[in-house]
Amino acid sequence: MEQGKRRKYDREFKVGAVKLATGAGRRVAEVARNLGIHENLLYKWKDKYAQDTLNAFPGKGHLKPAEEELRQTKKALADVMQERDILKKALAIFSREPK
User: Fold this and answer.
1) How far apart are CA 46 and CA 37, in angstroms?
2) What is the pTM of this model?
3) Looking at residue 44, which CATH number applies to its domain?
4) In this predicted model, what pLDDT tens digit does every residue of 52-91 receive, in sequence order?
């Protein structure tokens, strides 16, 4: 038995599917069946979309604005700490008494 490849869906497809599922009188199971996706997957998309409508489904390698800012802040902190450690070592080396 050969395993199928994992399908990837873009943001527009996910948003459209969620809007169809939340639309007038449609059931999630019916929409999922029509789109050829599993019902649980559509429920997950629906929950993510409800949590953050504007930043839902950022895509692979893309972060939400708040997460991106946190990542950049952590990177800047790590750089500053590394520079500080280098300067401490340099100070220790140059402040030694000559023999």
Assistant:
1) 13
2) 0.55
3) 1.10.10
4) 777 777 666 667 778 888 989 999 999 999 999 999 999 9
